Every structure is written in structure tokens, then in C-alpha cells.
């Protein structure tokens, strides 16, 4: 089996070679943790965004959209707590001069212990087959009990010390666990320090009068400051939600995992405003609903898990992550947070304006509580892309690279290929494209032997190849080849639209939720 690092390297190089993702300003050797989405990447990203938007805004009568500006009044970030508390604990290795997030070093260590327990479980599963009772094994096998207890103890202690702002204890934990620099093995660490992640910028032409601004580190605050505008102009009734997708910026301390941790990234967030006291019900609802959305894409149930937070952010009374099995292990893909009335109250206080809702049923005013769902679009991209990239050995012993993207997200839905570049076959192919392109992204390819063209479309994730041959001229039929099974069917040209639609329509996929 290929090593995890090799799989990840392969993902990065495939993304570049096939026009999905390029390093930013590559002619100048790139900019650290900033990436550009190329011709196919931009389509995949757009489709993921749309899949989210439809499920949130179009399918829910009580959720509406918003597109707030990236630049916001600087007091926003004072009120939200970002100026004072949007910090990560950083630690430097004195020998290698490499910088790390102290919490991530400890979490990765805890995850390794978890993996050891998982290995024991997998081994036992393989040994006992159908007779295996996983729950019983976890609670009785001495080694597994020990590993899981250790993992829990470490995570809890980290949560406690971060929660209390006790950075000395985080350092002590790193030393006690003898955590070494992952790249060099050195254990010569500095103290742990806080580092603010916001990018500063200036508004205004002259240096004296310029106003200090921040590039938004999350899209959520644009929703909060517009809460009452949307509620009033849309005549919204609590409970209701506001959804938004857009860029966010964080000066991440360590950003070495491709598009998993970027300095400029895109979020898809929905803030759901509820009656105080009802937030736990809605928190559970959204936790479940969001997982169902992820599962509808068919990337495998085993690739997701919940992680309930020990350490809660300053604004939350409950929080969980949906973690995904990335090529480098389980990591946060989406956060679901019960944010209480923290944000709206803070904006009331700092702005001096009321941000309250009059509830006609209760006949009273209140500041609503908020449940947030927040998923990184780029992380979704990575999850989908990395899981879909497969190296297959075929019956004849040859191999093929296939990007088994969920068809609903594929950048190009079908490629039309004339068998040869003559005899009128290109013209018929173009006619088919003219007809299909109103509904789908369709590509034309006439270069190389048809087998090689199939392989290229497989690597791009195109669900269908439509081949036009001499028989097409006689009976208006073509072959349609399915990417995953490589099965080919002879169908009428007139049937193509229906066949494609059935496999790629957002409706059919979202109905699996
Ligand atoms: P992490 O712990 O990984 O830094 P976070 O808890 O700070 O993430 P949130 O503030 O909850 O993240 O942001 C919501 C979502 O935005 C995350 O679940 C993730 O998908 C995405 N996200 C956050 N930071 C980044 C980043 N630097 N690059 C890409 N996506 C990000």
C-alpha cells in the first residue's frame, strides 16, 4: 500500500498537472500557503459552493443569503473578541528554527495514540471476522483501554490549559510527552507564546489619516452586523438563518498542508438565530443535518467522525467538529458552534444600537441565540479531490488513474470524442456539444487515440465520454462510456441529455440527504 505522504504528494501533483490548483504567483516561486484555482479547480469549487448553497438557501424557506464585504468597520473585530483573543499558541524549535502550533503538536501526538488503538481494533476485526464485537473489545482489551485513556487524558489536559490560558502548562505537556520537532526530531523548544492571526491593512490615502483595518478572519461577523437589516427587510421570523460564502484571511503560523490550511481561504457559513433556551435543540439538529449533507456525496461514512470540543471558544456553550479522514489523518472539516448571544450582545454594546428581535408569539424582545455551521470550501475541495483520486489495476494488468468525483461536482460532465478527425465525425460531435452545452459543461477532444482520450477524461473526473463513430452517421447513435465502470452503452443522441441529467442533477444527489 502506498504511504500516506506519497498519496498526499500525488494529490498535489495531480491537482497541478490536470489544471485544478496552482501555487499562487508561481513565476515568483509562489507565496506560502496561498493557491490559485485553475480551469478545472474553479469549476469543482463552484459546484461544491452551489451544492452547499442549494441545500441551505434554496431548500430552506427560513434561510436567506448574504454577501457582506470583506472589509468591515474595525470596531467589529474589537466587539467580536478577535483583536484580543484570536490567537494561536506558537512554539519555536530552537535547533531547527521551525515554528509550530503548540496545540497541534499535542493533538497530533494524541491522534497517533488513537491510531495505535485503532490498529489493535482492526487486527482483532480481521482475526475474528463476523463474530467480532467491537464495543466489547474496546471495553475489555487492556491495550486498547490504555491507549484510549491516555489519549483522553492528553486531550483533556490540553483543553484545560488552553481554556485557562495556561501556556506554561502547554509547554510542560509537550516536554512530558517528549514531543519532538516532526521534521528534525529535536526537543529543544522555546516557551509557548500567543500570536494574533489577523492581517492588518489601511484604509485612506494619506498616512496620517489612514484607518487601521483588518481583512476579515471569518465571514460570520458580516452576518451578525446585518442581522437586523435582514430580519426587518425580509420579515424573517425566529428561528431563521443567514447563509454566506466568501473569503476569509488568517496569518496562520504553520501552513504546510496544501489547501487544508491557507492564509486566504473561503468559508461557507450559516448563522441560525433561535429563541434563547432553544439553542441546544437546534445545535443537535444542525450537527446531524450537516453530517447528512456530507454523507450525501458518497465519499464513505467511515471517513467522517464528530469531535466534541473540550475547550470551548470564548463565545460558545457547545461546539463540535465534523472531522474528515484527509490523506494526513482525521482533521476538522466543519465546525458547528452554539455561539449563544455573545456576538449580537457585543455588537449592541460596542455600537450602542439595539440588535433585538420582537417575538410576536411571546410578545417580548430578546437578543436571539445563534447556532453556526461553518465549513471551509477549500477543505471540502481537498476532501472530495483526495478521496476521489484512485489508482486502479485493470483486468489486463494495466493501471489507470481515475478521479472518481461525485458526478454532481465534476467540473466537466461529458466529453464528446469523434473516433477519427475526418469523415464528418468532428462536425457531428460539435453539433452534440451545441445542444448539450445549454445544460452542462461539455468538452471536445479529438487529439490522440480514443483510449488515451478516455484516460485523460478519467483523470479529470469527467463522468461520461460520448464517442461519435461511423455508425453515428447512419443511425444517430453514439457510445456513452461511464467513468467508474468503464462500461459502454450504445444510445440514441436524443437520449444523452436524460442520461447525463439523471447522474449529475443536484436534486438527485441532495435527495439522498
Ligand atoms: P483549525 O482548528 O483547523 O485552525 P478553526 O477551528 O480555527 O480551524 P473555524 O474558525 O471553526 O476553524 O473555521 C471554520 C472552518 O473554516 C473550518 O472548519 C475550516 O474548514 C475552515 N478553515 C479555517 N481555517 C482555515 C484555513 N486556514 N484554511 C482553510 N480553511 C480553513
From TrEMBL:
Task: Give the reaction(s) catalysed.
Answer: tRNA(Gly) + glycine + ATP = glycyl-tRNA(Gly) + AMP + diphosphate
Asked if Transit peptide is a keyword of the record, the answer is: no
Gene Ontology cellular-component terms listed? cytoplasm; extracellular exosome; microvesicle
* Enzyme's top EC category: ligase
Specify which residues bind substrate according to the UniProt entry for this protein.
Answer: 101, 218, 265-269, 372-376
Keyword annotations of the record: Aminoacyl-tRNA synthetase, ATP-binding, Cytoplasm, Ligase, Nucleotide-binding, Protein biosynthesis
- Looking at the record, the residues that make up the Aminoacyl-transfer RNA synthetases class-II family profile domain are 151-418
Check the record and name the SUPFAM superfamilies matching this protein.
Answer: Class II aaRS ABD-related (SSF52954), Class II aaRS and biotin synthetases (SSF55681)
| A GO biological process held by the record | diadenosine tetraphosphate biosynthetic process
A single GO molecular function term of this UniProt record: bis(5'-nucleosyl)-tetraphosphatase (asymmetrical) activity
- Residues that bind ATP, according to the entry? 250-252, 260-265, 332-333, 376-379
One Pfam entry for this protein is HGTP_anticodon
Q: Where in the cell is it found?
A: Cytoplasm
Q: Which family does it belong to?
A: Belongs to the class-II aminoacyl-tRNA synthetase family.
Purpose of the protein? Catalyzes the attachment of glycine to tRNA(Gly).
According to UniProt, the name of this protein is: Glycine--tRNA ligase
This protein's species is Flavobacterium phragmitis
Amino acid at each position: 500500500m502506498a504511504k500516506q505522504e506519497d498519496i498526499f504528494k500525488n494529490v498535489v501533483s495531480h491537482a497541478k498537472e490536470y489544471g485544478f490548483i496552482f501555487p499562487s504567483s508561481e513565476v515568483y516561486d509562489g507565496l506560502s500557503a496561498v493557491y490559485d484555482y485553475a480551469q478545472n479547480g474553479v469549476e469543482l469549487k463552484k459546484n461544491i459552493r452551489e451544492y452547499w448553497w442549494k441545500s441551505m438557501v434554496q431548500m430552506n424557506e427560513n434561510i436567506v443569503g448574504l454577501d457582506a464585504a470583506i472589509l468591515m468597520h474595525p470596531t467589529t473585530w474589537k466587539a467580536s473578541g478577535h483583536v484580543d483573543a484570536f490567537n494561536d499558541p506558537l512554539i519555536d524549535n530552537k535547533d531547527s528554527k521551525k515554528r509550530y502550533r503548540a496545540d497541534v503538536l499535542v493533538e497530533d501526538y494524541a491522534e497517533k495514540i488513537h491510531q495505535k488503538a485503532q490498529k489493535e481494533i482492526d487486527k482483532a476485526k480481521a482475526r475474528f471476522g463476523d463474530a467480532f464485537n467491537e464495543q466489547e473489545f474496546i471495553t475489555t482489551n487492556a491495550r486498547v483501554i490504555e491507549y484510549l485513556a491516555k489519549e483522553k487524558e492528553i486531550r483533556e489536559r490540553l483543553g484545560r490549559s488552553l481554556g485557562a490560558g495556561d501556556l506554561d502548562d502547554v509547554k510542560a505537556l509537550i516536554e512530558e510527552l517528549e514531543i519532538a520537532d516532526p521534521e528534525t526530531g529535536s526537543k529543544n523548544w522555546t516557551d509557548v507564546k500567543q500570536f494574533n492571526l489577523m492581517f492588518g491593512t489601511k484604509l485612506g490615502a494619506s498616512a496620517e489619516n489612514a484607518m487601521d483595518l483588518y481583512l476579515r478572519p471569518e465571514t460570520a461577523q458580516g452576518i451578525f452586523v446585518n442581522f437586523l437589516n435582514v430580519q426587518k427587510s425580509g420579515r424573517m421570523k425566529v428561528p431563521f438563518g443567514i447563509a454566506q460564502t466568501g473569503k476569509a484571511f488568517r496569518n496562520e503560523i504553520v501552513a504546510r498542508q496544501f489547501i487544508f490550511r491557507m492564509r486566504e481561504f473561503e468559508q461557507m457559513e450559516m448563522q441560525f438565530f433561535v429563541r434563547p433556551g432553544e439553542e441546544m435543540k437546534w445545535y443537535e439538529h444542525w450537527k446531524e443535518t450537516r453530517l447528512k449533507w456530507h454523507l450525501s456525496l458518497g465519499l464513505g461514512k467511515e471517513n467522517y467522525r464528530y469531535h466534541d470540543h473540550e475547550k470551548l471558544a470564548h463565545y460558545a456553550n457547545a461546539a463540535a467538529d465534523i472531522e474528515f479522514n484527509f490523506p494526513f489523518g482525521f482533521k476538522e472539516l466543519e465546525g458547528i458552534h452554539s455561539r449563544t448571544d455573545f456576538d449580537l450582545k457585543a455588537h449592541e454594546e460596542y455600537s450602542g444600537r439595539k440588535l433585538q428581535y420582537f417575538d410576536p408569539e411571546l410578545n417580548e424582545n430578546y437578543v436571539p441565540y445563534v447556532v453556526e455551521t461553518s465549513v471551509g470550501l477549500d477543505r471540502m475541495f481537498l476532501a472530495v479531490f483526495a478521496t476521489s483520486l484512485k489508482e486502479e489495476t485493470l483486468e489486463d494488468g494495466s493501471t489507470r488513474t481515475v478521479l472518481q468525483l461525485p458526478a454532481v461536482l465534476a467540473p466537466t460532465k461529458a466529453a464528446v470524442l469523434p473516433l477519427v478527425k475526418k469523415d464528418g465525425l468532428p462536425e457531428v460531435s460539435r453539433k452534440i456539444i451545441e445542444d448539450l452545452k445549454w445544460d452542462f459543461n461539455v468538452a471536445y477532444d479529438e487529439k490522440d487515440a480514443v483510449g488515451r482520450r478516455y484516460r485523460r477524461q478519467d483523470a479529470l473526473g469527467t463522468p461520461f465520454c460520448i464517442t461519435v463513430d461511423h455508425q453515428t452517421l447512419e443511425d444517430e447513435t453514439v457510445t456513452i462510456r461511464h467513468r467508474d465502470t468503464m462500461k459502454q452503452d450504445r444510445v440514441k443522441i436524443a437520449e444523452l441529455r436524460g442520461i447525463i441529467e439523471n447522474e449529475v442533477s443536484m436534486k438527485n444527489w441532495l435527495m439522498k440527504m
